[in-house]
Write a structure and sequence with these properties.
Blueprint (H helix, E strand, L loop, with lengths): L4 E3 L5 E7 L6 E5 L10 H9 L3 E5 L16 H15 L4 E6 L1 H14 L5 E7 L18 H27 L11 H13 L2 H13 L3 H6 L4 E6 L11 H7 L3 E6 L6 H4 L1 H13 L1
Parallel strand pairs: 3-4, 3-5, 5-6, 6-7, 7-8
Antiparallel strand pairs: 1-2, 2-4
């Protein structure tokens, strides 16, 4: 078996990358829906050059990990991540999650990493917690019809949806004056199409309907919450502005005009800000 895979307790092969000196502080990256660890290439190379050990894995059903039928929910995502980090025996790690990956970070840190004493800090980038879906208790959330629409797109023509999403709202390429990168759009499509349609379909429920209020309340490590105020995918008012109040030791950084995929479009700003937080 390749050293780049971990098999979870329920028999799922999870792919991971582990670059850099083994004795350096680990920075772990958790990707968003429906992408893979490749979404963090720019960050991983940046921190590698700064002397850190960088790790990222593909969520089950995504990227190079096994396209299993079941377990496409936040509990399994966090447990799968934990299996990788226990295998590598990571300590004093900084966990950085984007979008759905931010939800994964919140649940991993609360349920696994913090109790095991493995986590130094956490970062939520354009992240989905505490809850995306509009409910009686969460009136600012998005209506279920939004997520039903994404599900319909995945079921009907995933390949087209995976062109339209990065071309439009994900990177803010639909905004006047946006600098559009065809390579970024194609790379989003490539990452998405590597994964399983079933994992992507069921993952929509995971990222939109999982209430992570209690996860956030349980997090005591220093936590940086980064969000663009022009995020068209995860609106800031119902995400970062609430999350930072729930964690014990949170700092909010708002980026004016930045889109959901700001870690890619504005890596020149985001990366140094991440470094400053890690060093602080």
């Amino acid at each position: 078996m390749s050293e780049n895979f971990v098999t979870t307790k329920d028999g799922v092969r999870i792919f991971y990358k582990d670059w850099g000196p083994r004795d350096a502080q680990p920075i772990v990256f958790h990707h968003g829906w429906p992408l893979s660890s490749d979404d963090w290439d720019t960050q991983m190379l940046y921190f590698l050059q700064k002397g850190y050990r960088v790790i990222a894995h593909d969520r089950r059903g995504h990227g190079r990990s096994a396209q299993v039928s079941d377990g496409h929910d936040m509990d399994h995502y966090a447990a799968d991540a934990s299996a990788v980090f226990e295998h590598l025996d990571l300590r004093n790690a900084v966990h950085i999650g984007h979008s759905t990956g931010g939800g994964e970070v919140a649940r991993y840190v609360a349920r696994h990493g913090q109790p095991q004493g493995r986590v130094a800090k956490a970062v939520l980038v354009s992240a989905v917690p505490p809850l995306m879906l509009k409910t009686a208790a969460n009136p600012g959330g998005l209506p279920i019809e939004v997520f039903d629409g994404i599900r319909a797109g995945v079921a009907a023509n995933r390949a087209q949806l995976f062109v339209d999403f990065p071309t439009g709202p994900f990177y803010g390429f639909n905004r006047p004056g946006a600098t559009i990168s065809q390579g970024v759009i194609q790379n989003w499509w490539r990452q998405g199409m590597m994964g399983s349609a079933k994992a992507h379909y069921e993952g929509i429920k995971a990222f939109s309907e999982t209430d992570q209020t209690e996860d956030l309340k349980a997090i005591t490590v220093p936590t940086l919450v980064m969000h663009g105020d022009d995020d068209q995918v995860v609106p800031i008012a119902d995400a970062a502005l609430l999350s930072v109040k729930l964690v014990k030791n949170g700092t909010l950084k708002v980026y004016k005009g930045y889109p959901h995929g700001m870690l890619t479009t504005h890596a020149d700003v985001i990366n140094p800000d991440l470094l400053a937080f890690i060093k602080s």
